[in-house]
# Entry
Amino acid sequence: MLRIILACLCSSAILAFATFKGLSEYSVRAAEARERVIQITAHKFDYTPNEIRLKKDEPVILAFTSIDVDHGFNVPDLGLRADALPGETTRVRFTPRKAGKFEIHCDNFCGLDHETMGGTVIVE
Amino acid sequence: MTMIDRRDFLKLAGLAGVTFVTGVGCSATTLGASAVSSADEFHFVQLSDTHWGFTGDAANPDAAGTLPKAVAAVNSLAQQPDFVVFTGDLTHNSDDAKERRRRLAQFKDIVSQLKVKDVRFMPGEHDGSLDKSEAYQEMFGPTHYTFEHKGVHFIVLDNVSDPKGRLGDSQVQWLEADIEKQNINTQVIVLTHRPLFELYPQWDWWTGDGMQAVSILLRHPKVSVFYGHIHQEHHFKTGHIDHHASRSLIFPLPAPGSQPKRAAINWNPAMPYDGLGFRAVEVNQRHENRDIKEYPVKRGA
# Structure
């Protein structure tokens, strides 16, 4: 009897997780369908684009990739960080809550001019 | 301090342009409050960010001459330190693995000219972040380790072999186990490259999981941290732990957040080697205050 109860509990947990995961993926896809998607490509030693304009309180999807080595994308003043990796896309849903001009820097050491790799996020 | 001790100390401080910082409060002072050379006192020299292989006349037209001059300056100290430590960025990085090894070998050869033969190393991100310190380890050994000197426990931490500038869980656990073993009266000195605390993350002047290390170190009552990376003298406290950044031996960087971009401060022909230098740290087992003496690369610089 105990085994049957345990089996039922496990099945319920797996079902709940699968439903949650499915819903999460659905909500990201749904968000992508209605929100602006900004593609950001990292490369030695810059981002394209390296000036990103956002609107305060407007959610966007930032989609990061790299065409050479692993890079980071870090804007500490906005609490925004992502990896930009070759061969894959990292999607981050982000809503800026303050206006201003914020510096981006690469926080994954990527080579000779790593320290100069940066850009700007402008929130209007 | 006895008179003889004081005379020895004055000799140690004999170079022009030496500045002093005393104690955990780090206020400037004229002379240290303790002696050197007795059984429970000693001093070590910290050099940092030598960036061997760097080229760029605007920042340092004597890039190939600065490290040899610093070695000569250490050798000219009236009283030689017990040991010397290089807190990372021994070399300027190269994407070419062969060139990286060549620079590390040249650096090792130059610093072999130090009179003091007890020399400790650790990598900076320029030495180790592109190959997880593989080339560095071939020539200098482990990237994190501990050693004892006259009853003081030294811990060398590696926050650069991970290109994201993190210590990593296993090293944090290793640190925790090491700290738990220390006697409460033992002074602990941590040597590392990047600041462990969040000095200025906007310029990547922090260690991603450094505050985990700081919280572990806070459990011990007597801890100091000496580091490099930011190419300038800087003193900061997290709780009772004092953190001291050393000047570079290639080019200075601006004060954290003092300008929009982190960029090398250009060489000043009117004041060659301005902003560059090394330091001597006096350690006294009877108290945890440190006398830190900052030295220029050259006399009068």
